[in-house]
Amino acid sequence: MPCIQVKTNAAINEQQEKAVKTRLGEAISLIPGKSEQWLMITLEPGCTVYFRGDKEEPAAFVQVGIYGKASAKAYDDLTGAVTGILQEELCIPPDRIYIQYAETPYWGYNGRNF
Question: Considering the entire predicted model, what is its pTM?
Answer without folding.
Answer: 0.95
